[in-house]
Amino acid sequence: MIKTDILIIGAGPCGLFTVFEAGLLKLRCHLVDSLPQAGGQLSEIYPKKPIYDIPGFPSILAGDLVTNLMEQIAPFNPGFTFGERAEQIERLEDNSFKLTTSKGTEINAPVIAIAGGLGCFEPRKPPIENIARFEDRGVDYIIKDPEVYRDKRVVLAGGGDSALDWTIFLADVADEVMLIHRRNSFRGALDSVEKVMDLAHAGRVNLVTEAQAIGLKGNGKLTDVVIKHKQKGEFVQSTDHFVPLFGLSPKLGPIADWGLTINKNAIEVDTLDYSTNVEGIYAIGDINTYPGKLKLILCGFHEATLMVQSAFKYIYPDKKLSFKYTTVNGVEGF
Question: CB–CB of 201/116 below 8 Å?
Answer without folding.
Answer: no
